[in-house]
Design brief:
2 domains; alpha/beta; 19% strand; six-stranded parallel beta sheet; seven-stranded parallel beta sheet; Rossmann fold
């Protein structure tokens, strides 16, 4: 089978969607299928890879407290039509299919069985709201619709009703569970709390820093390790740390994928204090795979992955006092940490990329058997 995986986001910048696509590409290729990744790219040589077709120049666009690097070029039609005519894909799988401009352009010109995966979960989408009438025309061109979680399905169906097949994100079990050496400088007897995410407001690091003030009073031998890129908010975090006289906060910055498991294996507790707009809990699965207990915000995307009292503890978002109490509870009880970590590792096995890719492939096969390709459109 010949498959196109389409991303709206710059392939040169890591993102959850691009990571998802990369793992699907590897899994499908391993099954013997021919796969092409179509996406914008700011890297001049990325399209030299055999499986990558770079289309469009990406631009950084602020969106929902984050930065989306997408192409906004109005001149993609000719290039996209030529690619689709030459490649003749059996399946075109578009991730975030209603985003401008590449996904909608591919959707407009696709003559193949076309699948869309909806990843996002937000309180509202002004783009969906104001352009719903136009986007519905493209939405109806999807033969199949996937949502990565129930929250993602509820968000998308608020604007575009229909049947969504819920197939979750996956986790690279071998990568994160493989025995690796912890970060030596942090193996000094202190209890390590780990935060992994981009430094964005909605990720909740400011609440974790406030909670850590209380944790540090109760557990002077504790440390907070912050992993993730971002400079815009860093000055404010540094100012708070200095004014609070807070010790043992380490900003590790961006950590590449190969080194990331070492940080999880260094941690005693993983903390995800996001305030909302998370459709899924990839970082929770990473922590579970490494058998780490978790304290996370009780938001829909996280609660769909973690059960309170099983793999970790769920606390109200934006509540630094309850967050501190939960962290202290785990830091004080090594047996509880070990039990939750072991439960988390078993839970994570349900999300292996092998299982996820097989479910998506079965969906492709069903659509191919049930739906004839449409006629070419202008």
């Amino acid at each position: 089978m010949k498959i196109a995986l389409v991303s709206p986001y710059d392939l040169a910048h890591p993102s959850g969607v691009n990571n998802h696509i990369s793992h699907l590409e590897q899994a499908f290729t391993g099954m013997g299928h021919q796969v092409r990744v179509i996406a914008p790219s700011s890297h001049p040589h990325l399209d030299e890879k055999d499986n990558v077709i770079a289309v469009g120049r990406p631009f950084p666009i602020p969106a929902s407290g984050s930065i989306c690097r997408i192409t906004l070029s109005p001149n993609l039609s000719g290039r996209v039509k030529a690619i689709l005519a030459e490649e003749k894909f059996d399946i075109i799988h578009i991730h975030e299919p209603l985003l401008p401009a590449l996904p909608v352009t591919v959707l407009r010109h696709s003559d193949s069985i076309t699948v869309g995966t909806f990843h996002a979960h937000r309180a509202k989408s002004w783009g969906y709201y104001y352009f719903r009438a136009i986007l519905k025309r493209y939405f109806r061109r999807l033969h199949g619709k996937i949502a990565v979680s129930k929250p993602a399905m509820e968000f998308a169906s608020r604007y575009f009703r229909g049947y969504y097949n819920i197939i979750p994100n996956g986790i690279d079990l071998e990568h994160f569970s493989a025995p690796v050496t912890p970060i030596e400088e942090y193996c000094d007897g202190k209890l390590n709390i780990l935060f992994v995410s981009r430094l964005e407001k909605r990720k909740g690091l400011d609440y974790l820093l406030k909670a850590f003030c209380q944790v540090k009073r109760d557990f002077p031998n504790s440390r907070l390790i912050v992993v993730g890129p971002g400079v815009r908010l860093r000055e404010g975090y540094d100012r708070f740390i200095m004014q609070a006289g807070l010790k043992d906060v380490v900003f590790a910055g961006y950590v590449n994928y190969n080194d990331l498991p070492r940080y999880y294996h260094t941690a005693d507790v993983f903390c995800a204090p996001a305030t909302g707009q998370e459709s899924f809990g990839i970082i929770l699965l990473e922590a579970m795979t490494t058998a780490k207990p978790i304290v996370a915000s009780n938001i829909e995307g996280y609660a769909s992955v973690l059960t309170h009292g099983a793999e970790g503890l769920l606390v109200p978002p934006r509540d630094e006092q309850t967050l501190a109490t939960a962290l202290c509870q785990l830091l004080a009880d090594k047996e509880l940490r070990q039990r939750m970590g072991a439960t988390g590792r078993e839970t994570a096995k349900q999300y292996s990329w092998e299982r996820v890719a097989r479910r998506i492939m079965d969906y492709y096969q069903r659509l191919l058997s049930e739906t004839p390709p449409r006629q070419s459109s202008a």
